[in-house]
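One such shown below:

_____
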Amino acid sequence: DFALFINGLPVATFELKNSLTKQTVDDAVEQYKRERDPKELLFHFGRCAVHFAVDDQQVWMCPELKGKASWFLPFNKGWNDGAGNPPNPRGLKTSYLWEDILTKAGLTDIIENYAQIIEDAKDARGRKKYKAVFPRYHQLDVARKLLADAAASGVGRRYLIQHSAGSGKSNSIAWLAH
């Protein structure tokens, strides 16, 4: 539906859905997988940092479009120790995306410190393979909260971070160390 550019460089694309049209974030994910050609220049690997599927309840993201093989991950705040987003008395449950994440300070922080392309492995011919990485909301949130606490309280404190299995603990730790 739209793309975000900074100084003419593409940073993110968005498929937007809402309950008024009876479409959900799942429809947006499927639209990316079926109707967005990864061979199209805007969707080439490494061109955009992230592709967001958004409705009025949830946000999902994918750092690299691969057609039907695209892998979308939740970019939600979580609620009641579970998935999704908390109720928002001021508006949509997903408003944090444009109010906190897509701000000048929020987005430049992500581009500078989190979004990256890493060497993943080598293919059967020995050529290097690369992978795009973009932080999930909980990873970004924990890093920002711990950095703010360390700035306010000083160094040398101990913290316990709880992430579920497969949620990217290694990346959270690496971003904090960086």
About this structure: The mean pLDDT is 92. The chain has five helices and seven strands.
